[in-house]
Amino acid sequence: MTDVTVMGAGIFGLSVAWVCARRGAWVRVIDPNGPGAGASGGIVGALAPHVPETWNDKKAFQFESLIMAEGFWDGVAQAGGGAPGYARLGRIQPVMDAAGLALARAREESAAALWQGKAAWRVESAGGAWCPESPTGHVIRDTLSARLHPRRACAALVAALRSNGAEVLREGRAGGRVVWATGVAGLEEWSAATGHAAGNGVKGQAALLDFDARDAPQIFAGGVHVVPHADGTTAIGSTSERAYDDPAATDAQLDDVIARARAALPALAGAPVSLRWAGIRPRARSRAPVLGPHPLHAGAFIANGGFKIGFGMAPKVAEVMADLVLDGVDRIPAGFRPEAER
After folding, report:
1. What are the residue boundaries of the FAD dependent oxidoreductase domain, all occurrences included (predicted)?
2. Is residue 250 scored above 90 in pLDDT?
3. Distance between CA atoms of 43 and 87, rounded to whole angstroms?
4. pLDDT for residue 342 is more than 70
């Protein structure tokens, strides 16, 4: 007997399934393409917060999820033996001009209050080999940002689910309460059925470099994320493309991303590219995750729209969706509900 069926084995689907299974539900995950086949099978894995100002439900939710992440991923690793590559090592960003420096210092103060002493946002002097070039001589260092390897994280979730008796299948019959976490396909189905754009797919391209900086913080510079992974690779990403011909092809736009990363961080200059990746990420119209009762499937639920922050949001998304699906307790912010996309 199945208590919960999750349609879709991306990061939202697998995370919701894991928390439901951990709470004692019999869970089945169904995805015809297999786990992590879409954007969740990417390679970057930058879990970075929004700036600490103009606080709202989305930023508060993301903050709580980033704080929860270490315990969440430790539990996944212990249950299934997989290694998601999680580490909270922070992030460094250059400060480009005097106005940016003043703003960064103001945010330093707001982070002290908004981040509740659980993480810091600091302005520091630039320096060292693993530091982006900064016109002002200063950088922002936050201690909230973390990293994981998306592919390895999905594999670790599958291992944890199976160790807990859950099924992860390519085909099967849905039973019990059903959660639809089908990414771009789900947003397209919703849009077609209602005649308005509930969301769309945005292509991203990224690369892995053969460069070992596994204990270093991630860098955001030149509009590019540089994320050292625990396996001795360093990820560079990513683009945001609304128009594209081939969703799985990389091209000159990725070459530009790599060049900008190397210009911002000279330590990467000679590192060879070991992998190029492209995929489509589900972006809801509001850019927030879409959680709650499904707008099309009566009695079912939706968890979609992770876009660029899906892995960072996943621990909290999984918790509130399990509350709703298993216990009927609704703690979903108003801005995340399906009706907010109309």
Report:
1. 3-324
2. yes
3. 15
4. no
Strand, helix or coil at 246?
coil
pTM for the full model? 0.97
Tens digit of each residue's pLDDT (9 = 90 or more) over 295-311: 999 999 999 999 999 99
Among 57, 53, 144, 62, residue whose Cα is nearest residue 314: 62
Calpha distance 62→115 (Å, rounded)? 11
Strands 4-7 and 177-180, how do they pair?
parallel
Which sequence spans correspond to the domains of the chain? Answer: 4-89+145-198+285-341
Q: What average pLDDT does the segment 244-252 reach?
A: 95
Query: Are 79 and 160 spatial neighbours (Cβ–Cβ below 8 Å)?
Result: yes
Q: Residue 225 in contact with residue 91, Cβ under 8 Å?
A: no
Pairing of strands 273-284, 234-237: unpaired
